[in-house]
Amino acid sequence: MKLDRVMEILDAKVYTDVAFDEIEINAACGADLMSDALAFGENKGLLLTGLNNPQCIRTAEMMDIHCVMLVRGKEPDEALVNLANEKSIVVMKTDYSMYSACGRLFEAGLPGGDV
Amino acid sequence: MPAEVLRQEYNVSADDFAAAGAASAAVKNTLKKLGFSPDFIRRTSIAMYEGEINMVIHGGGGVAEAEIAEDYVKITLTDHGPGIADINLAMQEGFSTASDTVRELGFGAGMGLPNIKKQSDDFSLTSEVGKGTVLTITIKS
Lengths: 115, 141
Fold this sequence. Notes:
The structure holds two protein chains of two kinds.
Chain A (H helix, E strand, L loop, with lengths): L2 H7 L3 E2 L12 E4 L3 H5 L6 E5 L5 H9 L3 E4 L7 H9 L3 E4 L4 H10 L8
Parallel strand pairs in A: 2-3, 3-4, 4-5
Antiparallel strand pairs in A: 1-5
Chain B lengths: L5 E7 L9 H13 L3 H20 L4 E7 L3 E8 L7 H4 L9 H5 L7 H8 L2 E7 L3 E9 L1
Helix pairs in contact in B: 1-2, 2-5
């Protein structure tokens, strides 16, 4: 699924300057605890999280995850966005809850990854 | 891949949580430049990052060393923190002594050590209560 489709499904707002028109993701995982996310088996994925600090970007960096989606309307701070721009990771925000955001993407055909 | 063994050393500070992971990011960049495979880089990065976070949240900081050879990377993380009383218990998925503050920062799920072991080919964890902990892992390409 292309990232711009993810953005549309979740009515998301983008905070980074990273170009994402051509980015294709193959799976998503949802976690507030980063060690749970780090046990996620897929790369080229999307991380949905309520964790609004730079460690969600570090986690994405280590896992080759292209996009971090903050759920429940959490606005990222400048440090998070700066680190994401530096690492070429897209940061978006959706007002949907974790459950609803994951459900909408799953329903649209984006699978979860194996752990 | 390096023709000779390359050694890198980083100080890991416990004072700046936002900077935690910087050593792992630096090693990841080196591995990318050296042309290791994406899967190998990913396994090394995840294992080292989990270990680096442990040094910050449990170990009071320490030293991270990377030994990069043609067909393996060996990571040694040494801290002088409180140590681990029961290593077998610490290795169980879901077991954690992390505080609520650490959990609010996104860690302390009790998944770190098992995941480090899963990503590594060789894994050694030694610890002495009151003296500190040494984690040594090797990832083979």
